[in-house]
Amino acid sequence: MKIPNFRWFIIALVFLAAVLNYIDRQTLSVLAPTIQADLGLDESDYANIVNIFLVAYTISYLVSGRMVDRLGTRVGMAVFVAFWSVSNMLTAAAHGFRSLGIFRFALGLGEAGVWPAASKSVSEWFPAKERALAIGVYTMGSTIGAVVAPHVVIPLAGFAFATHLPFIADLLGQGAGWRMAFILTGAAGLVWLIPWLWLYRLPGKSRFTTDWELKLLADAEAAETKATGGALNEKPWGWGKILSSRVVWLLLLGRLITDPAWYFYQFWFPKFLHSERAVPQEGLTVTGWVYVAAGVGSLLGGWLSGLLVKRGVAPAASRLWVMLGCALLMPVSLLVVRATGLNATMALTAVTIVAALAWLINISSLVVDVVPKACLGAVFGVVAAGSTVGGIIMNTLVSSMLSKTVSVPSGFLNQAVDTLFGPVLRAVQGGGYNLWFALMAFLHLAAWLMLYFGRIHRNSAKAAA
């Protein structure tokens, strides 16, 4: 049976994987107070658990892409989804700091692998004019997963198993509710494997692909091969070439510099509203609009650069033009801290988040535009590792900005960052949120200038080394 535009069914599956990825990731965050009470964990323990996850995530980024390149997109994606789903389910067996840390480390190893696999699926199924939009669609899955997670896991954790399903309460013991939340959300990933393994093949080997769609992809590949002199079909790069590539380092630094803006809105913005805008705990549901804006930015950024490609602009150049517009919008963050009302604060915040996510979609698309397909997973993973490193640095910087006294950093990873960047942290200490918003206003413009004068849009994959 032939299905018209089957490539969009493929990206719908990747979108669902991203939703499940973020639901599983957010389960611990959403249920943290209950889990900490049941397992006897203090705030320092929780900080270390979070950092253990980030360390695993960074490690996985460096190796998972190469695994996907070797296993293929279909098998590679399935391996990582299965691994993280089982890891999430095993979290139900945690009984203290050590076991919880082990399971969250395993979760981080599995979850990072979905993103190189997702980017590779886009390179296999989408022409250049649709790639950024496809990446925007599956990236939007992560924002939806973050919104959905509390509405899924909190009711599960609060269900009276002892009353309605006593055998489960007896089996799982103390904290049956939150333990069951981990089991069921993890199991959803295993169910997802069924349609993925059934449907995903390379376009030429899929029985669902129409002749029209095959021609669309073949014509697009021929045009891209001609434009790059066949560079995108090169043999895979070795680690030496990847790690010495100027383009790879430009993209990695671009993610490291700019991704902290999005991390800030995920992890610190609710605290900003609570302390600076006097929004009560129950009123912080308004932060759901952060993820709505992120979804809009994901789709808008992909659509805009795709529109430029359709009008004849080279793919890499089209991404940079959209990214310039995003960079010029980011100074709106200077107005966020000066806004007096909640509505004005949220409106201005929405503008910066749309810009930040549209930027993220296009810098992710640049990787697909300039790197040989055979090693795309490995390069994407290395570039994405810059994102998590940037997030760790941002967390430490903002923590120092909000601290009025010298304090011992909590968590082993924060201590390591403090050792490396101690003088900088002391210099910004006590600067408050205003200092971070001022810095965040120009991160994207600095990164854009680096990418532009690094001539990344002038590089074919063959010239990337």
Automatic annotation (TrEMBL):
Provide an example Pfam family for this protein: MFS_1
Q: List the top taxonomic levels of the source.
A: Bacteria, Pseudomonadati, Verrucomicrobiota, Opitutia, Opitutales
The GO molecular function terms of this record are: hexuronate transmembrane transporter activity
Does the UniProt entry include the keyword Cell membrane?
no
- Alphabetized UniProt keyword annotations: Membrane, Transmembrane, Transmembrane helix
User: Membrane topology per the record?
Assistant: Multi-pass membrane protein
Q: Which PROSITE patterns match?
A: MFS
Q: Which InterPro entries does the record match to this protein?
A: MFS, MFS_dom, MFS_Na/Anion_cotransporter, MFS_trans_sf
Where is it found, in Gene Ontology cellular component terms? membrane
* Location(s) in or outside the cell: Membrane
User: What broad class describes the main subcellular location of this protein?
Assistant: membrane
- Which segments cross the bilayer? 49-68, 75-94, 100-118, 138-161, 181-200, 247-268, 288-308, 320-340, 346-368, 375-398, 433-453
The species this protein belongs to is Termitidicoccus mucosus
Q: What is this protein called?
A: MFS transporter
Q: Where is the Major facilitator superfamily (MFS) profile domain?
A: 10-459
